[in-house]
Amino acid sequence: DFIQNQSCMSISSTKMYFCVLGIEQNKRTIQEPYTQLKALLLYIFQLIDYRSEFSKWWCAEFKTIKFPSQGTVFDYYIDSDSKKFIPWSEAVPKFEYDPELPLQATLVATAETHRLSFFLNLLMKRERPVMLVGNAGTGKTVLMNRIMKDLGDDYTVTLVPFNNYTTSLMLQQVLEKPLEKKAGRNYGPPGSKKLIYFIDDMNMPEVDTYGTVAPHTLIRQHLDYNHWYDRAKMTLKDVHNTQYVSCMNPTAGSFTINPRLQRHFCVFAVSFPSQDAQSTIYRSILNGHLELNKFHPNVKRMADKILSASIQLHSRINSTFLPTAIKFHYIFNLRDLSNVYQGILYSSAEVIKTGPNLINLWMHESNRVYRDKLVDSKDIESYDKMILDLCKKTFEDVDESVFQPEINIFTHFSEGIGEVKYAPIPSYDALNKILVEALDNYNEMNTMMNLVLFRDAMEHICRINRILESPRGNALLVGVGGSGKQSLARLAAFISGLEVAQITLRKGYGLPDLKLDLAALYMKAGVKNVPTMFLMTDSQVPDDKFLVLINDLLASGEIPQLFADDEVAEIISSVRNEVKATGMLDNQENCWAFFINRIRSTLKVVLCFSPVGSTLRVRGRMFPAVINCTSIDWFHEWPREALISVSQTFLEEVELLDDVIKPSVAEFMAHVQITCNEMSHQYLVNDRRYNYTTPKSFLEQIELYKKLLGQKNSELQQKMDRLLNGLLKLQSTSSQVDDLKAKLASQEVELKQKNEDADKLIQVVGVETEKVSKEKEIADAEEIKVDQINKEVSIKARDCEADLAKAEPALIAAQEALNTLNKNNLTELKSFGQPPPAVVNVVAAVLVLCSPHNKIPKDRSWKAGKLMMNKVDQFLDQLINYDKENIHDNNLKALEPYLANPEFDPTFIRAKSAAAAGLCAWVVNIVTFYRVFCDVEPKRLALAQANADLAAAQDKLAQIKSKISELDDNLADLTAKFEKATSDKLRCQQEAETTERTISLANRLVGGLASENVRWAESVENFKIMASKLPGDVLLITAFISYLGYFTKGYRDDLMKKHFVPFMGQQKVRIPITEDVDILQILIDDADIATWNNQSLPSDRMSTENATILCNATRWPLMVDPQLQGIKWIKNREGEELKIIRLGQKGYLDAIERAISNGDCVLIENLEEEMDPVLDPVIGRNTIKKGRAIKIGDKDVDYSPNFRLILHTKLANPHYKPELQAQCTLINFTVTRDGLEDQLLAEVVAKERPDLEATKSQLTKQQNDFKITLKGLEDNLLSRLSAAEGNFLGDTELVENLENTKATANEIEIQVAQAKETEIAINEAREFYRPVAARGSLLYFIMNDLNKINPLYQFSLKAFNVIFHNSMERAEASEELKIRVENLIDSLTYLVFTYTTRGLFESDKIIFTSQMAFQILLVKKEIDPSELEFLLRFPSAPNVVSPVDFMSNNSWGAIKSLSQMDEFKNLDRDIEGSAKRWKKFVESEIPKKEKSTDCDSALIPLL
Fold it and tell me: The whole model's pTM is what?
């Protein structure tokens, strides 16, 4: 049907094909073979050689034409001149090897490609749509590009890549972009050019629900009517001067296209080249390389054998490694052969000097191309055997040791980083040295990578580096998360000198953001010519549409609509000069092609994807370039040797481990990884649960071991130190008692002497005190007198000061008057010949004042005045220093006439002379001042006398006080002596009392802690033993925490008891381990468990283990908690400080960022199977800035070391990717049967005996509190003893607290013993109801297992609890306990049955009923498990022949198996001996009613 629905070639295309051949036939003749032709041409790539079949048919049909006997009709064309059949091979142009051209872009012409090129050129020039159909790697795109490149300047080409998400709108936008508007509604390419739309992968768009493909419909509309519609204006657009060419891979995409579209295309099938064609292609390339580089003749002679081996190997691989659903990428085509030879072209004559060198290089390249793709070890072994056999057969004259070298790795850095030469690595040690140096250099320049370069890792680096060094080399690294893909790719890129670029997901990151990032990368790589590696991981593909852009990038390097028109113009302008430098015309097409080619050569894409699930397979089908245009490097599970090497490297730095046991520890870690991986496969098969162990899990195991070993060693040491300190303190207490008694006796003697000395001093102090008192009375009387005198002096001083204040203005005025005088104006005054009389009077008055009182001149003329002022400076000084307080009466008397003169006024005189006015003012104010001063003088004298009296009184008082001071000093000295004697007496008394009390306390303490003395000594010895066993114990703990969290109880016990512990016992160098070690006792104690139980953690072992893992894991815990018991415990444990978040809620990302900065604990609840990729850095703890920050999206968030993250899902059986499981510790909090039984027992007892359950609950909480209190008291006791310094018995409070602590602990221990007795009694009463709880637990797990039949069957514990309570309500009451319990069981069973069957399909009800009955009978031990096993599994002994005709061989094999049971022993013999009777029994419609014998009666119950 598939073949009949295809159209390989339209009728018109067929006519053109045969017209070119020169065959003249009418239309009817051509149409006759069309039905067969259209199917045959499409499927030439299938196993049948349709071309050969068609050629035979054609020659037989057209008998009148003599076709050549050799080859097929496809191998010839008709020469237009000679009219003869000429082989196409004769027209093939000669190949010229171009070493600068990548092999992917090299086209070696063959008869096939030349024939296709001829027809394509012919058809395209006649504007006929053409389609090339063929498998991936057959050269369709290269051929089409070469033809379009040769079309000339009249044509312009637009690439239209199709993918799964291409829509008609997207297609129309791409089609319209190169068009310009013409007249009216006409559109076309610019100018008179013709536009060719090259559609690659025509059949890739998704087929919609109705079987149509919208992009195809748009193309068909254009081909049918030459128009399409403007989607905005809803108007027609006539599009002219365009044509379509396309390529299609029939094995990808939708496999078919609409015949109404395909009829427009002339379809040509492009098959995989024949062996002759392959030989032609690669011989031309290889010989061209060898000739150009002048290789040795021996090497050249080996070329043909290399070519033959390559083709044979490729053919064998194609037929051996066939694609499957898992091995979907096992598609080997011409690309793979080309990649082999691309690697060979790296060689140089300097390196490849002999034929064996070339063989090794060819084997290496073949391994890289074919072997690195293989998925499992079985395929790798098959390949290794295949290539070895082929080498032995092809290179017979070469020694076999050449084919199996110890190391066969060629790299571009074999001689060191930066020294590019493709040469072999001499040894793994040499490779390790180079890579270690490269890693050190990388770590100096980038974020630290702590890599262990074991053999596999080094090989992967070489493989990735080889890909990156290849022209247009892109890599697809496939491996589970945590296998080191990214780290190794980064190191390989560093070695190749490539910058690494990655997208950073942030909130709302979508396709437009990816386009912006890719556009920036294009500018960096294409314009700035910066070699770059674009690294992309699974987690960075939140939407598969992202891969649309990556697919286009890989396929052609060109991403449609990545740049706006102005950006394209800017790019073209940027590269124009470089295009000119190459000698090409710098038009737009050449510049853009140059830009794209540079992108393909400098931008390397490395995809790191996981093979888990169907994601990669689906992506490979939807985006073929992800597989076809990349080199695949498959990361396998680390082998045991690699695991041991890695662990040994990390363990070298652990000082707590003896060097002797480090290899054993490494072996055990590797064993744990491998065993858990195998058990995970079994877990998936049996329980359908996905648990992954990745290399990152292994590294986390090592880190956890180092952390726990140091932590537990420190804790043990601390405990030992505290106990030893406590023991030392107790021992010192016992030895100190006798010393304290002797000390007390001496203290009592000293105390008696101190009392006598103090009594004597009391008498002396009394006498001295009386003397001081008398002297103080005298001093007080004198002090009163002094105060009275002091008051009088103060009054007189105030009066004098008031009077003097009145004279002050006159003195100031006189001074100001003098200030107005200076040398100049006095000289001017002196120069007056005949001054006015008023001026003469002023000078005369001054003369009077300045004259001695007994020599007042009578001559007061102007001449006498001038004589006085003769020396101006001296005159001024005389005025300034005038003795104003001692003016004689004679002078004043002589001055009176002048002062009485009305004209003796400064204001009046200023009009005559300024200097005279100043002298006048001075005279007036000096006289005024003197007169006031004379009034005050008696008072001043009285004040002086009073001050003298006061001074005398004060001197007397000072003498008295001095005497009192001496007496006081003497008294103070005596008092100090007395106080010292008294304090010595009191101190001595207190010391004696303290010593006496200390002796008492020491006796009490030694007696009270006598039991601790023994117990602590035993504990110290136990701790020493534990310390010696710590390496093994912690190793077992680490394995448990790292790997067993997601396993159920049975698997955990199996791994621990049957795999881990026995392996440690079988090692040559045994790791010290505690016998029958309980991992919980090492990690936690009873107090921890009691605290958790008080916080609502179920008390069963599984829940305690889960809590222990959660509290000790280094990775973030991810709780699988369908019954929500774990989350209830977490919420109670963390309290109100817990930040609860659900993904998708408003502002959840901001809340997480705040919590990270503040160091809060965050619970992300109700997770689905897919996580928001933005949170990957948080979950993976990918911190930056030396752990101080973490990058979330494009934001750097401060990272607090106190931040904690807990993940939670209520999915019963989630399937998380290995990447997430590697970053988290999965913990299976699913309720266990024992745990549920205990919970249901509490429920039924609470309902039936609420008093009993209340007492039990209260007692349990009390017991838990007692354990917590006891632990706290002992810790407090030890911490106090440890903190005590020196003679701690002197600290009474400390000793009393120790005593009280011990007393409280003793009381609690008594209460604990009493509570245990009460608990036993209560438990005995509760046990009567356990059958009800056991039945409930059994029924719930039967219900829960129904999802294995159909995922629709989901039953929650909450709903079951409702049924459980309803059954107790509906159960028939009874006074007798036994009957009541039976009623409860019957009611519960019936309600669960009716509730469950109501939601089941009819076909599943019988399964549930049977399972329910079987399980109940098994629990009651009413059926034999082995018989049930036989009934359910029907085991049949193989290779037996039935001796009776009514039984098949398979049935007889079952009888043989049944006869092995004691109850059915010899059944097979009885059937053989009584065949007729047994035949009747077997063929009976109701065997139960048949008369039974001894043997067949045993079968009746089974019927």
Answer: 0.72
CB 409 within 8 A of CB 425: yes
Measured CA distances, 499 to 442, 463, 520, 605, 713 (Å): 12, 18, 14, 12, 44
Which one-letter amino acid corresponds to residue 1109? I
Q: Assign residue 675 a region (left: φ > 0; alpha: ψ between -120 and 50; beta: otherwise).
A: alpha
Token readout for 1056 is 């621990």
Helix axes 485-495, 455-469, angle to 10 degrees: 50
DSSP string, 303-355: HHHHHHHHHHHHHHHHHHS---SSSTT----HHHHHHHHHHHTT--TTT--SH
> For residue 739, what pLDDT band results from cuts at 50, 70 and 90?
low
- In whole angstroms, give the CA distance from residue 1114 to residue 1421: 45
Q: How high is the pLDDT of residue 676?
A: 93
Residue 573: pLDDT over 50? yes
Residue 736 — pLDDT band, cuts 50, 70, 90?
low
State the burial class of residue 1242 (Cβ atoms within 10 Å of its Cβ: 0-12, 13-18, 19+).
Answer: middle
Pairing relation of β-strands 155-161 and 194-200? parallel
Judge whether residue 897 has pLDDT over 50. yes
Interatomic CA distance for residues 118 and 880, integer angstroms: 134
CA distances for 449 relative to 440, 441, 501, 1201, angstroms? 9, 11, 17, 21
Number of H helices, E strands in the chain: 55, 26
Residue 474's SS3 state is coil
In what helix (H) or strand (E) does residue 994 lie, and over which residues does it extend? helix 914-1008
Q: Could you tell me if 649 and 641 are in contact, meaning their C-beta atoms sit under 8 angstroms apart?
A: no
Tokens of 1017: 């000594």
d(CA 1203, CA 1163): 11
Which residues is 477 bridged to in the sheet? Answer: 608, 633
**Which residues, in sequence order, are CB contacts of 1095 under 8 Å at separation 6+?**
1129, 1132, 1133
CA angle 526, 532, 553 (to 5 degrees): 65
Q: Which distant-in-sequence residues (6+ apart) come within 8 Å of 971 by Cβ?
A: 765, 768, 769, 772
Q: Could you give the angle at the alpha carbon of 521 between the alpha carbons of 519 and 525, nearest 5°? A: 120
- Mean pLDDT, range 244-272, rounded to an integer: 86
Q: Which amino acid is at 489?
A: A
Longest CA–CA span in the chain (Å) reads 193
